[in-house]
Amino acid sequence: MDPVVTQRPASGLLIAAARSGSGKTTVTLALLRALRRRGLVVAGAKCGPDYIDPAFHAAATGRPSYNLDSFAMDGVLLDAVAGRAGAGSDLLLAEGSMGLFDGIVAEEGRSGANADIAARYGWPVVLVLDVSGAAQSAAATALGVRAYDPRLTLAGVILNKVASPRHRRLVEVGLTRIGIPVLGAVPREAALVLPERHLGLIQAGETEDLEARLDHLADLAETSIDLDAVVAAAGGRVPAPGIGHLPPPPGQRLAVARDAAFSFVYPHLDAGWRAAGAEIVPFSPLADEAPPADCDACWLPGGYPELHAGRIAAASRFLDGLRAFAETRPIHGECGGYMVLGESLEDAEGASHRMAGLLPVATSYARRRLHLGYRIATLVGTGSLGPAGQGLVGHEFHYASELTPPPGPGEALAAVTDAEGKALGFAGHRRGRVSGSFFHLVGLR
Question: Which CATH fold would you assign to the domain 11-233?
Fold first, then answer.
């Protein structure tokens, strides 16, 4: 459920880093759970297109966490989602993705970089600084971050992977020299590592002893981070909640696959569908459940069907029910859902599994190749995502490959470019009432 909106204004912070792998997620989760335990109403958000981290934020805070994306969302939608994320909270902690300034080549404020979000809302930046293999030199990285973008305020740093008290002292010497506050120092501790999978962390719902892990992180924050200083550093604004230009629901009673194989739905889409009056009816393909017959549309999200291909292939009630549903009502699949709507799915060991056969595509996880980036799509025909000619913006992140030839204009879902306008040809498929593609919808364009 969405939070109750109050008149209490929230402030914000961006938890960022100079590069991936610095420990942003660990520090963010530690702060979220620790501040919640102190009685603050704290909210989480994730900068950029990520499904996994927001679920961990939600587990840490007990409230939804939303994605904020300065490229894929126009200003109206971005403000609406940021407002929904922070509604009723004292503090909104936004976790960055990749490096603070990493994005596409675009006009200022629309690059998709974390920095755009901090600048738009005036949120100070707390830099997570991985100091493994460095001492005083780590200050040069922090200094560069502070100087690179005059729109931002660097509130301080949290050191990560600190090897010893002496190591911390040496790092702090450099930071003191340039006047950047140290808000905490997290020791190098293997027990803090969360389990990972090929698209990132193991999902929150699958992580063993998640509550204990989160409480352990909160204990660490209490002993390693100056929580009072972090709260005092927050600032800027969180906009008032609004509807924004959310993509309309593909049906008013919408069957949505939801289990360990199908779990990637952006929270703002789910919230937007509900705000438009749609009823979301979950069902589990892994439990061999068919889409409910009283629904008027079906959505197969992304996830990890490649890890469950044999089980899906054996789920006859699900597959037969999906085929029957498609005879009279629309179905759309994103990424993993698209793979399941196809003819076959080859798993990591090279074994081929028969899928629903509703779209003329065969996919393989054995023939891995990274596909990553924003996608600007123009629909070729009318379907679940809108009328022919509708512009969409989304994101693609997967390792699976298509074994079948690329679609032509008569069967493609959309004509697609990358974020900088480079034509990528036709993508996805549509056949009858069924459609799908590897890109995940974020918003309209």
Answer: Rossmann fold (3.40.50)
